[in-house]
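B., you asked whether I could sanity-check this one before it goes into the benchmark set. Here's the sequence:
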Amino acid sequence: MHKNIEDFLVEVPEKDPLEYLNLKFDEKLLEPIFKKYDLVDFNKVNTQDFLKNLNVDKSVGVSDVVGGYNAAKSRLDLFAKKGFNDYQN
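And here's what the prediction gave me:
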């Protein structure tokens, strides 16, 4: 053990390891996007016209899947109780 101990020694982590990171957002990253696309004020947009002109498949019906955090949590809990057993072995 004494011969190999140096291989297993690691530095103690910093109390706040993210403290030294520069987390400021560089606004210059947005410049090419603003040059390519115009900003839209959706308060001034006719929503129905906007949706009508979207390039999406309008034959797709409304989904019966309920979204949101609570629905996702319920589905996960149900899977953990009943569905997970199908994956064992």
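One thing to flag: Residues 15 and 77 are 35 Å apart (CA to CA). Otherwise nothing jumped out at me.
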